[in-house]
Amino acid sequence: MVLSKNSGGHRGMQESMYSVIALVFILVACVELCDAAAAIDVYRLIQYDMSGSAYGSRFAVLNHHAASLHFPPGADLSRAVLIIPLRELNITFVREYINQKKPLGGLLFLLPDIFSFENGGNKQVHEKEKLKNLLAELEQLLIHANIPYPVYFAFENDEIDTVLVDIKKNDAIGQPATATTGGYKLVIPTPEPKKVASPTITNIQGWLSGLKVDGDTNQLPTIAIVASYDTFGAAPALSVGSDSNGSGVVALLEIARLFSLLYSNPKTRGRYNLLFGLTSGGPYNYNGTQKWLRSFDQRLRESIDYAICLNSIGSWDNELWIHVSKPPENAYIKQIFEGFSNVAEELHIKVGLKHKKINISNPRVTWEHEQFSRLRVTAATLSEISTAPELLQGTGGLFDSRQFVNETAITRGVKLVAESLARHIYGHQGKNVQIFADGGSLAVNPAYIQSWLDLLSQTPRVAPFLSKNDPFVMALKKELADHTDEVNMQHEVLEGVFTFYDSTSARLNIYQVASVTFDLLLLLVLGSYLIVLFSFLVITTRGLDDLISLFRRPPSRKVKTA
């Protein structure tokens, strides 16, 4: 009985000891004592490969301390995330860090809420334009660089601003956040990016049949109105492309609506077929347009009188450009340009002509009409842009937001195109006849333009991240079907030299962490308290001898030899 009692007592003491040890381990595990300071949505810099070369941000997981641009000279930033508000951006500094491949834990760019300014004073307009140009320069730098760490974008808000003030304060006094000093830690526990397998592009086509004379077996001529709807930008989850090319899409839909009213009545139906095309793959040498055109049979292709491609017509003042591949002396080009010029003069709009010869052997396609020209189809692009953009430039980036697009400019562009087409279709060239006059039943509808522009300005449309049945794609199809006939969709795999990676957005958790010095001090205090508490419990329940026996060396178990 005594033996049983003693072994039971030892077992109880061991259980108490194990409980205390477990408690100590829990405290050690939690010793960092973090308080969640903020949690915000962030948007990752695009990651892609082009011709086997890597571009963009190559990582997504983030778990480093935060730092500001006020970090002390010589500071080790290899495990720090620099938080850089766009207002404070030094583009030379960022370019130097990226080009020289200096070690960095990550970058977080804070985009201002300046795009939602309610007042439009001259100072604010100037500031908007300044930030827009700065953001455009930053975007081009980032998308053409191979960056071996996570890069994210976020919008300024009160939470992140408060955190940034504290970080700047610590950096200014020479105490940047480290494991030793504490500070703020940025954590994004997201899976590493994976390749987007077989990204699809979807073209949408609508048709308005012209009026045929009884007994006429000849095919009617066709005019094509085309706009590319997808975008490309530094942050795919933010690439809405309000101007490029949301404005072109809106204009196409309104032109389709206007001509559907004319073509619904046999008395006003023209003797031209109208083909409307909403194409994808625009930023990638208009890959979708190429596939769409190659799906035409030869008879349809030969019936196209000419094609008008709409590109970025939402932020111009008084001048638009018609870009062509055929020489200006070409009879068809002269006819198109004269038709647009006559209407433009009546609308007090200036229209210029830009000729750029294409090189069939060069895969680079700068304007959508060039895909038509490569198949010997007369075509032109109407745009506010006077010079051909570089690859992946001006394709709906971060700076291309709703606040920089003027629906009045789109309305004027729609009038120009619709009147020019109508005069060509109905043989009114050179006549001062307004078919789509303001106030009439065929007037351009600004409310319709505004509603679709608002929708496009809230919808990221980077093609590799749009599925075949994406709600936005289906909405475009439905809208085109409301105004045209024989609407169909063409799904193709995006071909070429591009490979894309997923993980375009995430949730950033910002923790305020205590310093190691504080952690050690706290651990020492807690450990001392637990030792005293344990000793007190053992003495009061079992006596001093039992406490001493815990630390006494156990007797040797060696057997004595005879």
Automatic annotation (TrEMBL):
Q: How does it sit in the membrane?
A: Single-pass membrane protein
Question: Sorted alphabetically, which PROSITE patterns does this protein's record hold?
Answer: EF_HAND_1, PROKAR_LIPOPROTEIN
Q: What coarse category fits the chief subcellular location reported for this protein?
A: endoplasmic reticulum
Q: Name one GO cellular component term.
A: endoplasmic reticulum membrane
* Intracellular or extracellular location(s): Endoplasmic reticulum membrane
Write out the similarity annotation: Belongs to the nicastrin family.
Write down what this protein is called.
Answer: Nicalin
